[in-house]
Amino acid sequence: MDISMTAYLTIDAGGTYLKSAVLNREGEVMMTSGFITKSFSKGSSENIMKAFYETVAHGLSCIKRMGMSMGGIGIAFPGPFDYENGIPLMEHKFKSIHGIHLREAIYRISGVPSGVTISFMHDANAVLAGELWKGKAIGYDNAAVVTLGTGLGFALSENGVIQCNSMGGPMVTIYGLPYKQGILEDYTAQRGFLNIYQKITGKADLGKTKVSDIGKWASEGETESIQTFKEVGTILSESLEKILIERNIQCLLLGGQISRSFQFMEESLKQGLKEVKCLREISVVRSIDNSALLGVLKNIINVSALELKK
Description:
Structural class: alpha/beta
Distance between the termini: 18 Å
């Protein structure tokens, strides 16, 4: 196989959308290969699998049009998930495909080469892997990433190696940490932002307000929106401080769609973590859109290399 003519389909499976792109081995996104479709994570198995079929078909079409060969397919997927065997185990999202052998289902899609590497990776681990390879975590042995979206993700590395549990998910999780009357995810993921904003504004009903709306209003100078992000920054710092010290984390990055508004939580987050002496950088990831896809690509390459040795 000519490595220079090899392409990889990378997919980031989120609670709202499946986002994908075709990358070459160096991590460059192939022109017009980007694709987004609803993931139907709370819908029927038929709708979820249809979204995957459309995503894979689009990637295959792009690779064929460019005259390249398929080097592998990689998918970033939230947990719990059996990453080695490709089996979703979630109960709150993608529940209707719980227990399905996703790798086998993808092999059955027309045009997918038999035997091509299909790898799975936790979405937060994928973001960190992308940043360690091509992003702001380069040069740091111990780095961590927090992903803010419909859920709250966390991943960390030690001596440049991402720390995983026996299922391939993050070794350390933070979403379920006790916080006030609930867990940390209740206060820092999508529903947390909306609840805090509602409390600050005193509005009885937010209607169809999204966190991206709050971010937009913050950029326009709305005091209540800015205060919402500041509060979340403070909450995160309170909850992360002990973990960052124990794990000697040098670089803390924020990813996920909500981190597009990182500037509004940056000051309170840094203020809350000022006593964490090991920290040398607190920032947003280099690429909110592509970090997970780059991490998935790196994983495909690593898995392929291991398979060749067998």
